[in-house]
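Here is a complete protein record:
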Amino acid sequence: MLETNLTNHFLIAMPMLEDPNFFHTLTYICSHDEQGAMGIVINRPMEVELSDVLAHMDITASDFSAGILPIYQGGPVQPERGFVIHTPVGHWDAMMQTGSLGITTSRDILVALANGEGPEKTLIALGYAGWGSGQLEREMADNTWLSTLADEHILFDTPAEQRWQAAASKLGVDLNLLSTQAGHG
């Protein structure tokens, strides 16, 4: 039984987390239930833009400003699979809703973005992070992560390199002051 459901929360990697997939990451949790959790890392822009993805998918863009949208490294699982976190939610072919946000994986949202008809705010990622049943709960108990309710301003408006610290600041935590060494007396 889940003590806390972390859907629509941020996971803030603790400074001592050295796994290269999650070092200094901020992850948006899309779903969390008894079977496990799924999240998308939102502070690791890749050297890829939406125009690259559109070209790969043979989608012609009429709104060329959409082509410069950054693509994020969403996590180590299925790195070829795309996810669009967006608001407003709207109606898309393959979408799940968490709070006021939609997470869409279907081609129709990319076509809409390419034509200047997509959601007002978007974050596009390739891949995701996944946790098996009870795994995230164990990692939380081991102080691997801090969590806080997701914040659309951090998600969409804060520069990627500032998101990790901005989310921790919501909790009153300065990650720069946390030691990366365990204390043993």
Notes: Residues 51 and 67 are 4 Å apart (CA to CA). DSSP finds five helices and ten strands in the chain. The longest strand covers residues 121-132. Residues 160-170 form the longest helix (11 residues).
